Amino acid sequence: MDANGEELAPAVRSILSAARDRTGGEERVSVEARSVPAAFAAAEADGRVPVIAEVKPTSPTTDGRRDDDPVDLARAMVDGGAAALSVLTEPEHFGGSPASLERIRAAVDVPVLRKDFILTEAQLDVVESDVVLLIARFVDDLPALVAAARERGFQPLVEVHTRAELDRATSAGADLIGINNRDLARLEVDLDTFESLAPSVPDDVTLIAESGIASVADVRRMREAGADALLIGSAIMDGDVTANVRRLTSA
Ligand SMILES: O=P(O)(O)OC[C@@H](O)[C@@H](O)c1c[nH]c2ccccc12
Question: Where, by residue number, does the polypeptide cross the bilayer (predicted)?
């Protein structure tokens, strides 16, 4: 059971137990972050839908695995018009690594989000990135971790899936919020999640729709519901990533 009083999917329990075992960095990092709101505004000014394209070699809900060089994938996504990138650093269930993120961030000039299951302050010190994901459902002291991320120069992206988590995110001072359409208890995706929570998000928050966005119609649907940007993984990783990003950013 977790804080929501709901049993998590076995894959998610395994992810969390691995995350609890991972140590942090030795030294506190200090980041000069590339601005996410500026990157989204630049995409809009250029007529592109702001998309955060995700380098996700595999996942518990994906068949198979992509073994291309993550730097090649990242460059191809930027060529297709991605406003920012998300890079999985979770090694055991998503095929990611902090080293891939470091190489990708050195190779591109868009903001890079570190996608991982960060539970402790020391885990922030593993690698530099422009944005770090903090999952409201799993972080006990959200205000403390949001503050710790900002002290290091990161822009914290707080991920929520319910109204209660959204309230915790806003009271923790989050100004970059992602609504995850995937339910981590059952691993099912439902785009209604974004539509039902978005109206309760304060106007000054930069709001991202996450997961399950597969088509141009899905992109339009999330934009109409108030998404400033979209976080898209599987639909981009499946096939020609440049063409996929181009299609989804021109929606
Ligand atoms: O592949 P999708 O359905 O486009 O989803 C991307 C992203 O939202 C998803 O990978 C994700 C959302 N929140 C997470 C937390 C950890 C790991 C992964 C995720």
Answer: none
- Residue the block writes with tokens 């839908």: 49
Domains defined along the chain, listed by start = 10-249 (3.20.20.70)
Q: Which of 56, 122, 121, 66 is nearest to 89 (CA)?
A: 56
Q: By the 8 A CB rule, do 88 and 99 touch?
A: no
Q: What is the pLDDT of residues 137-175, one digit of tens each?
A: 999 999 999 999 999 999 999 999 999 999 999 999 999
pLDDT at position 1 is 52
The set of residues, in sequence order, having a beta carbon less than 8 Å from that of 24 and lying 6+ positions away, is: 120, 121, 122, 123, 124, 125, 126
Number of neighbours of residue 239 by Cβ within 10 angstroms: 9
- 56 classed as catalytic: yes
Q: Say which residues have a Cβ less than 8 Å from residue 107's Cβ, sequence separation at least 6.
A: 71, 74, 75
What residue owns the CA closest to ligand 1's atom 7?
211
Backbone angles phi, psi at 241, to 5 degrees: -65, -35
* Residue linked to tokens 């809009």: 44
Annotated catalytic residue: which of 90, 159, 165, 195? 159
Question: Is this structure's pTM higher than 0.95?
Answer: yes
Phi, psi (5° rounding) for residue 76? -65, -35
What residue has token string 């329990």?
13
Ligand 1 atom closest to the Cα of residue 181 is 8
pLDDT band at residue 45 using 50, 70 and 90 as cut-offs: very high
What ipTM does this complex have? Answer: 0.97
Biggest alpha carbon distance in the chain? Answer: 45
